[in-house]
Amino acid sequence: MSPDAGPEPASGRLLADVVDWALEASVVGSFSRIGIAVRSRVGRWTTPPRLDGKVVIVTGASSGIGRAAAIDLARIGTDLHLVGRDPERLAATQRAVVAVRGGGRVEISPLDLVDPDQVVAFAERVMTSEDRLHGLIHNAGALFPDHRTAPDGTELTVATHVLAPFRLTWLLSPLLRRSPSSVIVTVSSGGMYTQRFDIDRLELAPGGYNGVTSYARAKRAQVVLAHEWARRWGSDGVASYAMHPGWVNTPGLATGLPSFAHLGPLLRTPSQGADTVVWLAADGPRRDASHVPDAGAVEEPSGGIWLDRHRRPEYYLPTTYRSPTRRRRDGDELWQWCAARTIPDAVVAPL
Q1: Which of 78, 94, 107, 210 reaches 20 to 30 Å from 66, CA-CA?
Q2: Counting beta carbons within 10 angstroms of the beta carbon of residue 318, is it exposed (0 to 12), middle (13 to 18) or buried (19 or more)?
Q3: Distance CA 184, CA 317 (A)
Q4: Is residue 209 flagged as an active site residue?
């Protein structure tokens, strides 16, 4: 990707759109490394702008997409707070980041995001040490084959992918809302396309637990939550995007979905999976008017789910579709549900 490719002519954009549509329709071509290889070349992708002096938090930074995103953010000058559960792997990411940028401010915080006390302590440290926060990247996640619970008794998949990001974002929201053009990026999954959002079916009980289903429902809920952050805080200058990285060769994929190993060369590298994360963190949609959806399609450029630097449809199966009115209620219901479990003493009114 070249940082000085120059403006793309209209004919080039048309070709890129046609190619993009064909890849998206094929699914395999879109989700695999073929998709990003072709789209980046035909679309003449450029390197995201410098973020010197901008502070970004990356969760799940000890491996996979989170590690790759941290390294690529370092290349464009970002000051980083890296969060992960494994201190040794997190320290290894820190060393890789420092090597890329030749120094700079890179702080690590080993912690378990489903532990409220650890998250509160981390948020308090950040609130004390920083006066602004440009970006918050929710990447931490895992697919659990067996039913497990977090310290508060919530099923672990939901606690990890929904409640933990909500709690951390809420605690850091004063920094995000006072920072010009701040960004929340949530790393979801293409698996969410298989599930309809239903607050009453979000948390699976031990008897009917299925790890893949639980993961997909939580990832669908993440997209709903991304919309809510955009809707509630957009007027404060906060953009919120969900994205899915396609099929990426990560340790999480190998352990959570080993059947995907047969895709071999079709799997994306972690850096390819992280490209849209970094592009969104650099506020690509708000910088590039060509990515703003038509006025009749959605209310705002923020929100939605993105893949390969383009906003994607949120529904492919009729059984998962929710009307705009129902989506608004879904967002309010999920917000209240999360608030009651993470910040019960706060007054969080529906919008």
Answers
A1: 210
A2: exposed
A3: 27
A4: no
Judge residue 140's burial from the number of C-beta atoms within 10 Å of its C-beta, 0-12 exposed, 13-18 middle, 19 or more buried. Answer: buried
Distances in whole angstroms, Cα of residue 285 to Cα of each of 69, 239, 279? 18, 9, 9
Please tell me the distance from the alpha carbon of residue 114 to that of residue 305, in angstroms, as a whole number: 24
Weakest mean pLDDT among 17-26, 187-196, 247-256: 247-256
Beta bridge partners of residue 184, listed in sequence order: 136, 240
Parallel, antiparallel, or unpaired: how do β-strands 106-110 and 135-138 relate?
unpaired
Say what the alpha-carbon torsion angle 22, 23, 29, 34 is, to the nearest 10 degrees. 120
CB 291 within 8 A of CB 311: yes
- Report the amino acid identity of residue 281: A
Report residue 215 as tokens.
């993961």
How far is it, in rounded angstroms, from Cα 148 to Cα 155? 6
The token pair at 147 is 């039913």
> Coil, strand, or helix at residue 52?
coil
Total residue count of the chain as it appears in this document: 351
Burial 21-52 (b: 16+ CB within 10 A, else e): eebbeeeebbbbbbbbebbbebbbbbbbeebe
The pLDDT tens digits of the residues spanning 179-208 come to 989 999 999 999 999 999 999 999 999 999
Structure tokens at 315: 């529904």
- The residue-averaged pLDDT of 70-95 equals 96
Q: Tell me how many degrees the CA angle 133-134-136 measures, rounded to the nearest 5.
A: 80
Q: What are the structure tokens assigned to 225, written together?
A: 């939550």
